[in-house]
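Q: Sequence in, structure out?
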Amino acid sequence: MFNPSVWRFIPLLQAPGALQMAIDSWLLEGHRRGEHPPALRFYTWEPAAVSLGYHQRRWPEVWGDLKWQGRPVDLVRRPSGGRGVLHQGDLTYALVTSGLSGPRSQVYQYLCQFLIAGWRSLGYNLHYGSAGRGYIHNPDCFATATGADLVSDGGYKLIGSAQLRRDGAILQHGSMRLNPDPELCDRLFGVKMTSPPPPSVPLETIIAVLADAARESFGIELETRPLSEAEWRAIAPLAAQFSV
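A: Exactly. Output:
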């Protein structure tokens, strides 16, 4: 039995998108079965990728032929819902927990509070988006901002999140759009970026600040524990199911 106030913190990982999705899915399933404690981690995607929502069945043909810096852009399916997200110049967070009840919007806001607090301490104010259900017709997750998304005072959508629930266990993960390539965004979604991204802050600083905010917001301790060799062996075969 795990102490719910002690979460596992997995250090920053850079890896292909399908493997990152396999890790998130594996953490959720292990927590659902009572084998893993709640967890928080941050990661980046290498190579650049577009992740599709679990139920997303349509996307522009160009998405399968994109290249960035001479390398193909991966096409990956998330275990969570939502629409297409470009993972280039971003930092992704993922948390797995349980014991939360109430409407999905209420759980989103509870889990997002550490993001708002952390970015506020970095001098960047965020608030929830307000798009209606028409957003589902746009393949670009960052083209609109719903109540599950966090937007700056100037209108820049910094964080888009998605959530998956399994038997009371929750996976919430989201992309923080820090330094996207405007040309790649334009080729991908056909929409030019009109709002500036947040001021440049080292990833290590962002992660440290957000980890501290999570401790404060959720009243938890974070126990740093990288993935073990045995855990990597269990996770690696799962990656194939997230490739498109």
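The helical segments are 17-32, 104-121, 182-189, 203-218, 229-235.
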